[in-house]
Amino acid sequence: MKSQVKTTCNRDCPDACSIVATVEDGRITRIAGDPDHPITQGFLCYRTSHFLETQYSRERLTAPLLRSKQSGKLLPVSWDEALDFVASELVRIRTESGPSSIFYYRSGGTLGMMGAVVDLFFERFGPVTVKRGDICSGAGDEAQMVDFGVEDSSDFFDLYNARSILLWGKNPCVSSPHLLPVIKECRRRGAQVLLIDPVRHKAHSLADHFIQVRPGGDFALAMAVAQLLFSRGQIDPDASSYCDHLSAFREQAFSRPLSDWLHEADVDQAAAERVSDALGQDKPATILVGWGMARRRNGSAIVRALDALAAVTGNLGVPGGGSSFYFKRRGAFDSSFVKGLAPRTVCEPLFGRELLEANDPPIRAVWVTAGNPVAMLPESHTTVAALRSRELVIVCDHLLTDTAELAHVVLPTTTLLESDDLLGSYGHHYLAVSRPVVPPPDGVRSDLEIIQALAVRVGLADVVAGSARQWKQRMMADKLGPHGITVDTLEQGPVRNPLASKVLFADRKFATPTGRVNLIHSPAPSPALPDADFPLLLMALSTERSQSSQWARPQAGLAVLTVHPDAAAGIPDGGIGELHSAIAAMRVVVRHDPAQRRDVALIPKGGHLRSGHCGNALVAAALTDLGEGGALYDQPVRLRPL
Ligand SMILES: Nc1nc2c(c(=O)[nH]1)N[C@H]1C(S)=C(S)[C@@H](COP(=O)(O)OP(=O)(O)OC[C@H]3O[C@@H](n4cnc5c(=O)[nH]c(N)nc54)[C@H](O)[C@@H]3O)O[C@H]1N2
Ligand SMILES: Nc1nc2c(c(=O)[nH]1)N[C@H]1C(S)=C(S)[C@@H](COP(=O)(O)OP(=O)(O)OC[C@H]3O[C@@H](n4cnc5c(=O)[nH]c(N)nc54)[C@H](O)[C@@H]3O)O[C@H]1N2
Ligand SMILES: [Mo]
N or C: which end of the chain has fewer CB within 10 A? Predict the structure, then answer.
């Protein structure tokens, strides 16, 4: 028997693709992109098209694991044994030390809305300690909220109306491949593309102009551009009617000579003029603001400066214009049953340190779901020390990750092909459902089933009761119901969120307290500069081969570090070196790339600690200027021959 089933990819990715899976005799034999989905357009990325290897991997967990008191090893047990143990321990710890001694951590393993039901459980069981800040996009989120009061974008296809597209710190070839056909079509229609990135990467081939800015030099570049815009009369004459602080923004831009800003950005004047022409003359212009760029100590100021450039040049509220950082992926759903109560919070980028230091009461138990904080948060060794010294660590995952290895209990959960959930997207406005293409293997339960089984044991069965479908209905009823969109509708195919405007801010009304754009007018931290001891900034960037720490194929050999030949410390191309930061070191294979800057060291994001590939072992935990994001790319390192 051969059949085809459609589902939606639940990964932490802006594309949220529709997947067509072929099932033969109960086994998935092929997955492909859905030709009927307007964004997916019939193709999948590398990492998801290789997902069957993970789906059917021998490494997949198919029974709960409990750490044996005798051997200290994680051993398979029944669900009843695992859940009875977890329930009684959590209740005991709550009774002895209060609910804030339990820390519940959920990350981006799945972006399905069902995660809110797990949140609800922990809020009602406690409320317990939860995370604050955001390792992924905290700085940029806060920047957009401060500037516009809302974080969203115009319609995905509105890009066709742009004459200039600025890929500012963004690599769609890796992180949002379904943007590529649209950008290519825009170019065919005559739009120009500017790429502004310290790293020369594949998207370079799409760009008419490439500006290889200093890491974190974007704020200075934006100020140089602002000066040029003012001097050359390229500011929108109406800007003062919808922007606050226009003159203060102008003063800030002129607070230093143009040459100073250019020096700080490490670009020449022609490059800044090109940006100013794109925004001020070859309009409309859309800035596609990358997520990676804001993972710096001045990351929020950078995003705020780009928002301001788009605003003062009249590129907001017009077709083809915008400063697009995010699409409001949860906006159409109602998860207000979670109230957001918490007696205490742990700052996500400071996870390890804050866990170790938390007092009154100390954190005794940690529940990790849909995340791999050891590999993905900075200062991996601190994270390890923090988890290792807790009394109870529970991890829900389908693989024994660097984090799961440290747990007392591991609860095996479903994959993206077994998911039964509701999804928006942070890269477009389509809404969709995921549904199990095949049932999970015996011994595996969905996150919803796990939390429901636990809830029964702690007297909260009613709080989280209901099938996945009922929860979908519940989360759709309020906002989508009036538009006639139900679970049935989404089961027929994806639907564009009817609440999302085609052109954001078309009325030039913003959701700030004054209704106007709040232009940045305060100084920004200067970019992190490497020094003689540690002359390179380590950037662990997304790779097409993995979704964060979820690799399409196992990592073999040493991690590959890419540097300019002059920055290779004499190590030949293909040679082995040791990469040091102030806190740790790792062995790497060195690759020369003369197209890169001499002040960066590039490594794939998501390397595992146990295989020695983990860049985050070298990254000291540090915060961004706003939004409590992680300054992940500002870590100075040095390369040494062996
Ligand atoms: N294949 C794959 N796709 C992914 C992911 C993955 O791990 N693998 N991750 C997903 C996730 S979690 C997210 S949040 C998204 C976004 O994932 P990200 O990888 O954050 O996406 P980009 O926005 O492409 O940001 C990376 C780009 O920012 C550039 N950059 C870094 N610092 C600076 C700077 O100072 N200035 C400028 N101008 N540019 C800078 C980098 O060189 C790089 O080209 O993608 C998702 N998609
Ligand atoms: N140095 C450096 N560090 C970074 C970044 C960087 O660019 N450089 N990027 C940052 C970014 S953008 C992000 S978003 C974070 C990502 O950090 P994480 O969200 O921790 O990333 P993943 O490695 O994808 O971990 C997700 C885990 O969830 C599991 N999982 C998958 N599906 C499910 C499910 O349905 N249920 C449950 N319970 N688990 C599931 C996966 O197997 C995986 O182990 O990392 C950040 N860390
Ligand atoms: Mo992310």
Answer: N
